[in-house]
Amino acid sequence: MKEIIWKKPSELPVVTRGEDVKIWAVVDMYQYDMRFGELGGDGKAKRIATVKKVNRRVVELNYVYAEVTDDELAYFEENGDFPEGTPSGLDYWTNEDGEFIGFTGYYNQYPEEGRMYYEEFKLGADGKYQTTNNWTDNQPEWVLLAWSEFEKPEVPENLPV
Q1: Which is it for strands 45-65 and 104-112: parallel, antiparallel or unpaired?
Q2: What's the CA angle centered on 104, arms 118 and 8, to 5 degrees?
Q3: Exposed e or buried b per residue across 12-50, where buried means at least 16 C-beta atoms within 10 angstroms of its C-beta
Q4: Are 101 and 94 in contact (CB under 8 A)?
Q5: Separation of alpha carbons 25 and 142, rounded Å
Q6: Which one, of 135, 160, 157, 130, lies nearest residue 54 by Cα?
Q7: Is 18 left (phi over 0), alpha (psi -120 to 50) or beta?
Q8: Cβ-based neighbour number of residue 102 at 10 Å
Q9: What is the pTM of this model?
Q10: 22: closest CA among 55, 57, 59?
Q11: What pLDDT is stored for residue 134 in this prediction?
Q12: Of 46 and 127, which is predicted with more confidence?
């Protein structure tokens, strides 16, 4: 079995522009207890999220390099596609309204209600890559701790009987 070499999230995967790669990732997944407090100045009850549990897991994530130049974006917005010579993988990063939504970074993808969703890991104030949620007042949901290349295992010579 190959040894897994874990890297810090700041050691970014090497990816060609317009491409993405699947990676293994160690993440902390936060669960919160939610309650409502007193009314705020806007007349709405304040949400109070307190950490209930943190689970450490190894999950599949992706890293994408899908940035465009200002000229490429202007061409795209005018013509609905990218100029010749632009990496074709960038076409994938448009939403259903035809807007370019590309970015460079780690992300989680998941299907829901017949659609595919992408959740970008952003660098938090604490310097960690994380996903957040408005419901928990932008506290971390997933925090990326380490990543490793997603390597396909070799076919074993002997199978268990």
Answers
A1: antiparallel
A2: 95
A3: ebebeebebeebbbbbbebebeeeeeeeeeeeeeeeebe
A4: yes
A5: 11
A6: 130
A7: left
A8: 19
A9: 0.82
A10: 59
A11: 74
A12: 127
Token pair of 71 as six digits: 């000229």
Residue type, 68: V
Neighbouring residues of 130: CB distance < 8 A, sequence distance ≥ 6: 121, 122, 124, 140, 141, 142, 143, 144
Give the span between the Cα atoms of 56 and 39, in whole angstroms: 35
pLDDT, tens only, 86-127: 998 888 888 888 888 888 999 999 888 888 888 999 999 999
User: CA-CA distance, 51 to 55, in Å (whole number)?
Assistant: 11
Is the Cβ–Cβ distance between 9 and 145 less than 8 Å? yes
Contact (CB, 8 A) for 156 and 142: no
Nearest alpha carbon to residue 137 among 38, 41, 47: 47
Structure tokens at 98: 């035809």
Q: Two tokens at 128? A: 């960690």
Contacts of 64 (CB under 8 A, 6+ apart): 15, 19, 20, 93, 102, 103, 104, 105, 107
